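Input (structure):
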């Protein structure tokens, strides 16, 4: 049976001897290990840029999955085009090192240009951006302007340097090593940026570090180019002619399917693992680093394998079939293993100990798949390589096919498969995809003919091999179907309680209808009544047998009808509404259970309530489950629902509001810090009417003093007359409300009470009483401190800006710290009664002062 690979003797027959024609490349063979190190540096800089650029551009065009999809598609699309265009636009006679050096130098220059040009891009987008299809087109244009120039150069680096490598079986393996070196550098860059540069410095510093790496790589490459000569390998037209049936196209299809599966898996697994580990910036860095480590190991092993085997097509096909088991392994570990590891993160306050555990869990769950995907690249090169080829075109073609598949995987799984079918369907598809990739690449081996049909023994051997291969494919198909069928959905406990899912007791498995939950049982049990996977996140609603209903997102409770949470949510709404005389227009950022938004429903003066939430499942399915607590706010005719992230909506809307409230998820969740920057608060301030109010929720739990100082100092930088209102129980800290107005705030205590006593405010008064506030004094007695009192305490605070995003790195480090009472004590230590804040009839201000003194005494 004739296989579709061309053996060494056949290559000599087709192309003739190449020894004398390629003295140049052979003389330079000793420099290949040094080039490998250069590629490590190149990969390191590229990952630093990727983290910075995606973060900066998401601040401009939005944090939604659509915006991220546009950015990822543009980023990978640019690399794909670069890998295709360079071999066609740059002559193979040019010294590869000079071309490579010029590309690296260009990447560094453009990287700095993107950093300094981002403010201009932001201004242009603010003036032209919007929603709908036209808004997506504007986002795509912004992404293209910023990302295509540097990514075109990045994608061209591997094809450029590949022209220094011969296409013999041994030498072509260096292309895989270069690819592995690039990935190894990416691992280092990912960890360097996530755990050091951006944690301690800012995006400007990180950009300069990456540009410095580019410059160093370019300089070394220029020196090597000056030091060495290059004689291009003589091109042989016959080398491009492959025997009939070799199925070159099938290799490109298979490597594209491999890329599709790899990026689809990265999207799905990252989303699921972030729920169970905690969706901090560090978690995303760890998951990405583990995935890249697997790709790098696989590429190295695949490169070594190409030196030892004579049938790379068969090896490539087997590699794809092994991915069936690897993806099934990860699906099983994510759904059946990791959620039940007996881990209680609160036992350690050291984030570095937990990072080790997170790293171990990620390696345990996801490593096998990336190793096999990484090995696919050098094996595909080995199948397609033949002497006399333009190595740039060879590498560029394989790299482009893999990247096209990666783009389809990233966009398809994040925007279609998971939102429409859920992560269970996504994991089923990930298990089935490798079979089709293996089938495509191995199919030519089934119909190849024996070189000598008259030889009975060869014919019998060929038929036996074909039958054996067909049996293997049949078994692989059955195995893939069985494993996909056995894939289980993610346990709701992992969605609801995340990293604490294994330590919570009395969690009843399965999702049940609310009316099926038995009430008032003892001991307390928790049932899940809803779980949904949307475009931007996974959410759940639970009901305890004592009647407490909770909304869960990012692996924790975000809102509930528990009295303590109801008090906070009503406080956030009513303080804001009463501080503005007769508010008419309100913007609520983040819907959640809808209690804060619902607090504005009883006000007769309110004519318009805009609720902006990044996840459409929340107002559609979650909020209605709290209709009693939120006064059925989503069905109120005054309400407009906007499915967008709050920052992007405020950036692009022309509307101004009397009140803006923000109730986002915890600051340690990646992306949430964008709703706590100086620039964001400034945008909110500019969208307030004269006398307008800005307020937001801030948790003291799962935090430390350094984090809270950053939150307060950042807010007070824009609202220097700001106030902290505390939601505590007998001095035990829990959470708080930040409040600010453009002008100095004046609160007429008696005037507030007079409004509450009006007949048209009866519903407002009842809403406050439901949360334990029986008068204006009760509500205002939550006062803790104002900005002018905290200057000394906040002296060393780190201000959170778009340029450093300091808060998410601080908060991510203090995720398992429970110093809420200590934090409140540090804040209230600076308390004194503000006579300039609380004004009006002396009897009422005196009553409030007495209440605050009695609380302070406790």
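Output (sequence):
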């Amino acid at each position: 049976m004739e296989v579709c690979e061309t053996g060494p003797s056949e290559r000599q027959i087709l192309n003739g001897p190449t020894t004398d024609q390629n003295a140049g490349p052979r003389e330079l063979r000793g420099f290949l290990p040094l080039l490998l190190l250069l590629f490590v540096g190149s990969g390191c800089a590229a990952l630093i840029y990727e983290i910075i650029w995606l973060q900066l551009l998401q601040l401009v065009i939005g944090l939604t999955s659509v915006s991220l999809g546009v950015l990822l598609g543009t980023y990978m699309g640019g690399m794909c085009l670069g890998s295709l265009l360079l071999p066609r636009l740059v002559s193979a006679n040019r010294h590869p090192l000079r071309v490579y050096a010029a590309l690296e130098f260009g990447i560094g220059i453009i990287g700095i240009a993107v950093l300094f040009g981002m403010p201009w891009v932001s201004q242009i987008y603010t003036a032209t951006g919007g929603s709908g299809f036209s808004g997506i087109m504007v986002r795509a244009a912004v992404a293209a302007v910023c990302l295509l120039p540097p990514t075109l150069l990045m994608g061209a680096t591997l094809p450029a340097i590949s022209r220094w490598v011969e296409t013999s079986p041994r030498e072509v393996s260096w292309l895989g090593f270069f690819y592995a070196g690039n990935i190894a550098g990416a691992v280092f860059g990912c960890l360097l940026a996530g755990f050091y540069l951006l944690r301690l410095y800012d995006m400007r510093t990180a950009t300069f570090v990456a540009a410095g790496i580019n410059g160093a790589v370019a300089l070394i490459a220029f020196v090597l180019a000056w030091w060495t000569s290059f004689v291009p390998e003589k091109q042989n037209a016959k080398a491009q002619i492959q025997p009939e049936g070799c199925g070159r196209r099938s290799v490109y299809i298979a490597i594209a399917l491999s890329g599709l599966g790899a990026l689809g898996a990265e999207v799905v697994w990252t989303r699921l693992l972030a729920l169970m580990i905690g969706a901090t910036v560090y978690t995303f860095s760890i998951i990405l680093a583990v995935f890249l480590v697997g790709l790098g190991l696989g590429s190295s092993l695949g490169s070594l394998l190409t030196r030892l085997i004579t049938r790379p097509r068969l090896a490539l096909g087997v590699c794809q079939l092994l991915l069936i088991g690897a993806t099934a392994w990860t699906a099983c570990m994510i759904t059946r293993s990791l959620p039940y590891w007996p881990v209680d993160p609160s036992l350690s306050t050291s984030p570095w100990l937990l990072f080790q555990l997170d790293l171990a869990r990620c390696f345990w769950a996801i490593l096998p798949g990336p190793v096999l995907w990484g090995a696919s690249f050098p094996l595909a090169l080995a199948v397609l390589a033949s002497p006399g080829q333009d190595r740039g075109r060879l590498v560029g073609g394989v790299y482009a096919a893999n990247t096209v598949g990666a783009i389809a995987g990233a966009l398809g799984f994040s925007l279609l498969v998971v939102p429409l079918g859920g992560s269970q369907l996504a994991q089923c598809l990930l298990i089935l995809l490798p079979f089709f990739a293996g089938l495509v690449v191995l199919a030519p081996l089934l119909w190849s003919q024996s070189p000598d049909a008259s030889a009975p023994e060869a014919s019998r051997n060929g038929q036996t091999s074909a039958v054996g291969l067909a049996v293997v494919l049949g078994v692989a198909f059955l195995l893939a179907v069985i494993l996909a069928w056995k894939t289980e959905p993610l346990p709701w406990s992992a969605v609801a309680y995340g990293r604490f899912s294994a330590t919570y007791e009395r969690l009843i498995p399965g999702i049940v209808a609310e009316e099926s939950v038995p009430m008032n049982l003892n001991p307390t049990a928790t049932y899940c009544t809803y779980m949904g996977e949307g475009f931007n996140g996974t959410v759940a609603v639970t009901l305890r047998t004592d009647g407490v209903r909770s909304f869960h997102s990012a692996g924790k409770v975000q809102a509930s009808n528990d009295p303590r949470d109801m008090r906070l949510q009503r406080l956030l709404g009513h303080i804001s509404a009463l501080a503005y005389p007769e508010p008419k227009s309100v913007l609520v950022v983040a819907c959640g259970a809808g209690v804060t938004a619902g607090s504005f429903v009883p006000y007769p003066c309110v004519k318009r309530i805009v609720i902006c939430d990044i996840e459409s499942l929340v107002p559609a399915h979650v909020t209605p489950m709290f209709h009693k607590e939120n006064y059925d706010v989503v069905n109120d005719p005054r309400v407009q629902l906007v499915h967008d992230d709050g920052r992007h909506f405020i950036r692009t809307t022309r509307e101004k509001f009397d009140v803006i409230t923000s109730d986002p998820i915890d600051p340690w969740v990646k992306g949430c810090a964008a709703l706590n920057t100086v620039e964001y608060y400034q945008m909110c301030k500019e969208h307030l009417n004269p006398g307008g109010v800005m307020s937001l929720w801030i948790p003291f739990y799962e935090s430390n003093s350094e984090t809270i100082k950053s939150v307060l100092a950042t807010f007070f930088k824009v609202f220097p007359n700001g106030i902290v209102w505390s939601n505590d129980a007998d001095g035990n800290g829990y959470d708080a409300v930040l409040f600010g107005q453009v002008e100095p705030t004046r609160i007429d205590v008696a005037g507030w009470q007079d409004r509450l006593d009006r007949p048209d405010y009866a519903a407002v008064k009842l809403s406050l009483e439901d949360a334990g506030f029986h008068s204006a004094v009760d509500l205002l007695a939550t006062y803790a401190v104002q900005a002018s009192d905290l200057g000394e305490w906040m002296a060393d605070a780190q201000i959170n800006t778009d340029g450093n995003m300091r808060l998410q790195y601080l908060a991510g480090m203090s995720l398992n710290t429970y110093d809420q009472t200590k934090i409140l004590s540090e804040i209230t230590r600076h308390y004194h009664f503000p006579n300039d804040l609380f004004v009006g009839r002396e009897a009422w201000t005196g009553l409030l002062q007495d209440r605050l003194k009695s609380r302070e005494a406790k």
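Notes: The radius of gyration is 31 Å. The chain has four domains: 1-18+245-390+402-486, 22-229, 492-547, 561-857.
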